[in-house]
Amino acid sequence: MAQFFKAKPNRSKQMAAKMSLQVTQLDHLGAGIGHHDGKIIFVPGALPGETTQVQVIEQKKRHARAKLLDVVTPSDDRVLPLCPHYEQCGGCDLQHLDIDKQRQHKEDALVDLMAKLSNARSESLSSALVGAPWHYRRRARLATYYDKGTKQTSLGFRAQSSKQVIKIDQCPVLATPLSELISPLSALLNSLSGKKALGHVELIEADNGLFSVIRTTKEFSTNDINKVTEFAKQHHVKLIIQGNESDLTLVGDELKSLANGDEDLPHYGLGDDVKLSFTPGNFVQVNAQMNQAMVDQAVDWLSVKADENVLDLFCGVGNFSLPLAKKGGKVIGVEGVPEMVHQAKINAKLSDLTNVSFFHTDLSADISKEPWLGKVDKLLLDPARAGAFESLQWLKKMKPKSIVYVSCNPASLARDSEPLLKHGYKLVKLGLVDMFPQTHHIEAMALFELDKS
Q: Is 408 considered catalytic here?
C-alpha cells in the first residue's frame, strides 16, 4: 500500500502567538476568560477586568488556552499570594483572588452550572458554609522524588498536570503543626539509607495527635527504624511505615502492626459522642471545620424522625451515617470500598450506635435486588466526582420523601438533578460549601423534596 507523507502541524507557531487580552469573567475552574478573533481564550491566573499579555499554548477549533505573561492593568480584587510556592505547586490556584470574591465566584459558578446543565431551579440559595481561609487542611499527601545526580530526595507537591515534584518548606493551607513538620521531615528522609525506595508521605492531624505515614517499597533497616523512632519522639508525632503490601507499622519502643479498629489509628469526633476512626488512605474530608458544618446542615435539612428509615449511599467510614443515627430512626450506610465498610462498622461500635447497619455494594451496578434496599424515607448521597447517576435509576423503588445530595462536582450534581426532577422531586435548597479555600474546587449541598402538589 502506498503511503503519503503528511506534514505535521507546526506547533511552535501556535505556541509563539502573543497578544493583549481583556479578561471579562472567570470560568468554573477559576481561569480567566477573554475573546480574540471570535474565539474564547482561557487564561489561568487572570481575573475579570484585567488587561493582560498572554501567550497561546493550545489551539482548539472554538477556544484556546493561553499562558499569562503579564498583568498590565490589575483588578482591584487581585491580592498577593501568601504561599512562596504558589504558581509552581499544583495545589492552590486562586490565592491571587480576594477570599470574599473567591466565594462569590464559586456561588455564581454553582448557580450558573445548575441553570445551564439542568432544569433544576432552587427555591432559595442557602447561606454559604465558610470557614478559615488558611491552615484548614488536616490531611495531605506529599510526593517524594529521588535525584540520582544529587542523591537527594525532594518532598513536596506535584506541579499542575505534571509528575514533577515541587520541593516545599511550608504550606499555608495545611494545619500549622503539619506545615511545620515538612522541613524536619524532609531532613529525616534524606538521612535514611533507604531513601531511594520512598514513596508518598501522608500527614494527618487527628483528635488523637499528629500522624506521619511514610510509604516505602523496601523494608527499613534497623538504623533507619531507629532514626524515624527518634524523630517521632522529638516531634511528638505518631510515625507509621506503610510497606509494599499496604501493611501499616507504628514505630515506637516496639514496632506495632496496625489494622482496622486499632486504637492507635487516627480518629476525629463529630459532636454527640460520634467517633470516627480511619485508616491512612481511606477517604475523609480534609477540612475539619467545614466537615462539621456540612454534617450539621445535612442532619438539619433531612430532619430525621425516630420512626423513619434513612439510606446513606457512598457512606465512607460513616461521616454522615453516624450523626444521622444519633438523631434516631434506622440508618443504612452503603459503600463500594470493603475496607471502609469494615471501618464504618467499627465506628458504629465506637459511637455506641445499634440503629445503623453498613453494607458493601458496587453502587454503579444494579442495586434493585439488594436486600438492604427497602422502604426509604430519607436519602443522603455523597458520591465522588463522577456523581450518583446509576444509583438514582432506582428512585422509583426507594421513593424517599427528602434527598440531601452532597456534591464535590456541580456538573455531576446538575446532571443527576434530571432523574430527580423526572421522578417528581423539586430542588428546595442549594448552597455552597467552601471546603477548599484558595482553590477553584466547588462543593455544594442540595435538598430535593418529593413534590406533593
A: yes
Digit-coded pLDDT (tens) for 120-139:
888 779 999 999 999 999 99
Banded model confidence at residue 15, pLDDT cuts 50, 70, 90: low
* Length, in residues, of the chain: 453
Dist. CA 414–CA 407, nearest whole Å: 10
Q: Which of 89, 92, 315, 408 is catalytic?
A: 408
The whole-model pTM stands at 0.92
Domains and CATH numbers, the chain: 15-78 (2.40.50.140), 103-132+286-450 (3.40.50.150), 139-254 (2.40.50.1070)
pLDDT tens across 393-420, in order? 999 889 999 999 999 999 999 999 999 9
Q: Tell me the CB-side half-sphere exposure of residue 32, using CA atoms within 13 A.
A: 27
DSSP assignment of 108-158 = HHHHHHHHHH-S---SEEPPPB---SSS-BSEEEEEEEEETTTTEEEEEEE
Q: What whole-number distance in Å separates Cα of residue 406 and Cα of residue 298?
A: 8
